[in-house]
Every structure is written in C-alpha cells, then in structure tokens.
C-alpha cells in the first residue's frame, strides 16, 4: 500500500465491500497513507439497486474520513436490457462490464492524470471478491496487473484484500466492530447485488420480489413486464413470470415478509452475537 500512489476502493456497500473497506482503512491509517484512499460507488439506479445503497456506501466511507465518489452509468441496467433485447448472464455480464467496470476505469484514468507524476503512477484497484463466493471467483488471482486499464502513464493493480475470508468471518468482523450493513441482509437476502440478479438462485429471486412488496417497490412487475416485452427469458432455468407467481403464492400462504434488525448476524453467528452487535451500534449512534 505504501508504494501505491492512489488506492481506489470499489464499494457496493455490501457486506464484503464493508469488511474490505474496514481493513484497508485500518491498514492505510497504520501505514500513514489514509490520504491515498478513494472510495467509489457505481450507482446503477433506483430500478436496479435496493433503496439507500448509495447513502450507505457514503456513510461507510465517511466513518474513516475517506473521499467518496458516486459514478453513474448512463441508462442503467434496465435501459441496457431494453436496448439489447436480452438479459445478461454468467457468460455475458453486461451489468459488470458496461455499467461498472467501464465507468470505474474512466475514474482510474482521471486519478492517474490528476496525480501529475513524471513517473508511472501505481494505482491499487481494490474489490471485495472472495474465493468462497463461487468456483469462478476462486480461480481469480489475489493481486494482478490490470492489462486492460494499465498504460505507459499508469500501472493498475487489481487487489482482492479479503479473497480468503469466509462468509462467517465476514459477519464476525461486522459484528465485532459494529459495522453498518444494509437491512436487506436482515431479510435474509444473501447478497447486496442488483435487486433481481441474474446469478441469484430461484428462491432468492422470489424472496427479493416479496421484499420489494414489503418495501412498497413496484420492481417485480416492472421486471416481469420487461421480460415479456423483449421476449427473452431471464434465466434458462426460470422466468421472472415464474418468480412473480411463486412470490404471490407464498404471500398468500405466509403473509407479508417480516424481519428484525440484527437477523443477519443472528443467522450467521447466533442470538448473543446479534444482541452484542445491536448494543455496539446503539452506543455508536
């Protein structure tokens, strides 16, 4: 970290980004280079992100006194889907490539130019990817040169600081330090990705639809109708129409979705850990 001229932290405001940010800020402060750290959040728009995500990402950065930038992708995810007439998938992750990576790379180039160095700028691009998340992610390198973004004036190193960290360890760190996480985790949505992520399993998509209704969001119908309009199935295994129908069935059977603050910590670490976490958060408020 000391050798880098700038440290860029890409934050989704999710649990992994949160723990990554906490670790980087702690390390940078000890190394005397906290001033090099910049936190960015790619805002995918209200039709893709859960409410409050951008504001949470900002609060998470401000906890450590870090600079914070919001970048927005023109058109958003649904605009891109409607334009292309198809949903992204694991092989064609347009949401990552077009809406996130390409937008973030513009800021990387801008930061390198603003440094105004006579030598090649070294930029650490930090992402909260973990090997345990998927077989594909487990094959990534912990640290690698980003050949796509590097140039004569800059060398960009992609770094995954929490690559070996387990899911339980993520939640343990959140609980121990009283870190603020997004409430959707308490509704037992496992990842703070897009509201309807093409990589999410059927049961998570169904729960996301029910959570939308509990929050008064019209997104389930919006996504279902867009699927019908473009004539492209959301996933080969299931359509959004099927997700919608199953969510409606469960609503009739179980009633509206309910949850309590601390339920995510309770699920992963137990009731005592959840009580301790809530007490820490209350003291910090």
From TrEMBL:
Q: Which Pfam families does the record match to this protein?
A: PAPS_reduct
Molecular function per GO: catalytic activity
Which residues are in the Phosphoadenosine phosphosulphate reductase domain? Answer: 7-197
InterPro entries xref list:
PAPS_reduct_dom, Rossmann-like_a/b/a_fold, Sulfate_adenylyltrnsfr_sub2
The cross-references to Gene3D superfamilies, in alphabetical order and at most eight, read: HUPs
Record PANTHER family: PHOSPHOADENOSINE PHOSPHOSULFATE REDUCTASE (PTHR43196:SF2), SULFATE ADENYLYLTRANSFERASE SUBUNIT 2 (PTHR43196)
Task: Tell me the protein's name.
Answer: Phosphoadenosine phosphosulfate reductase family protein
**Species annotation:** Streptomyces actinomycinicus
């Amino acid at each position: 970290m000391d050798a880098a001229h700038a440290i860029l932290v890409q934050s989704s405001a999710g649990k992994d980004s949160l723990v990554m940010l906490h670790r980087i800020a702690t390390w940078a402060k000890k190394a005397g280079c906290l001033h090099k750290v910049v936190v960015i959040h790619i805002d995918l728009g209200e039709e893709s992100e859960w409410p409050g995500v951008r504001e949470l990402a900002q609060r998470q950065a401000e906890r450590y006194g870090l600079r914070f930038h919001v970048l927005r992708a023109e058109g958003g995810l649904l605009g891109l889907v409607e334009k292309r007439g198809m949903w992204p998938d694991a092989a064609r992750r347009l949401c990552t490539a077009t809406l996130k990576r390409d937008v973030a790379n513009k800021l990387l180039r801008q930061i390198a130019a603003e440094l105004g160095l006579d030598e090649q700028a070294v930029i650490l691009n930090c992402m909260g990817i973990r090997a345990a998340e998927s077989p594909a992610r487990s094959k990534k390198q912990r640290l690698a040169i980003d050949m796509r973004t590097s140039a004569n004036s800059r060398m960009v190193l992609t770094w995954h600081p929490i690559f070996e960290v387990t899911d339980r360890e993520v939640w343990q760190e959140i609980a121990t330090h009283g870190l603020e996480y997004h409430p959707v985790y308490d509704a037992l949505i496992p990842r703070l990705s897009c509201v309807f992520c093409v990589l999410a399993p059927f049961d998570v998509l169904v729960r996301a639809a029910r959570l939308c209704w509990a929050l008064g969001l019209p997104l389930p119908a919006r996504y279902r109708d867009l699927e019908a309009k473009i004539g492209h199935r959301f996933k080969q295994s299931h359509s959004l129409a099927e997700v919608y129908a199953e969510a409606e069935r469960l609503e009739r059977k179980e009633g509206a979705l309910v949850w309590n603050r601390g339920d995510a910590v309770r699920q992963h670490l137990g009731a005592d850990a959840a009580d301790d976490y809530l007490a820490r958060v209350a003291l910090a408020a």
